[in-house]
Structure of Ferredoxin:
Amino acid sequence: MKVRVDTDLCAGFGICVGICPEVFELHDDGYATVLVSEVPPELEELVRRAADQCPTQAISLSGDSSD
Ligand code: SF4
């Protein structure tokens, strides 16, 4: 599964970073960036939860074959 953050949408709440700091990092510019291009399987659930809880729906997932 791949994950990306749309920096136009991200409002920098940092919720994703709180949920999965292995994958998301809050940039000095105030938006989140993704640290990995491919999400390790053991982190997919956390990344999905972060995407669900992002208030601006800035996190998009792709190549998710497990649903
Ligand atoms: S939860 Fe959403 S809005 Fe907040 S930092 Fe992460 S991507 Fe940005």
In short: The helical segments are 15-19, 44-53. The beta strands are 2-5, 24-26, 32-34, 59-62. The CA atoms of residues 18 and 24 lie 9 Å apart. Residues 5, 10-16, 24, 31-32, 54-56, 58-59 surround iron/sulfur cluster (CB under 6 Å).
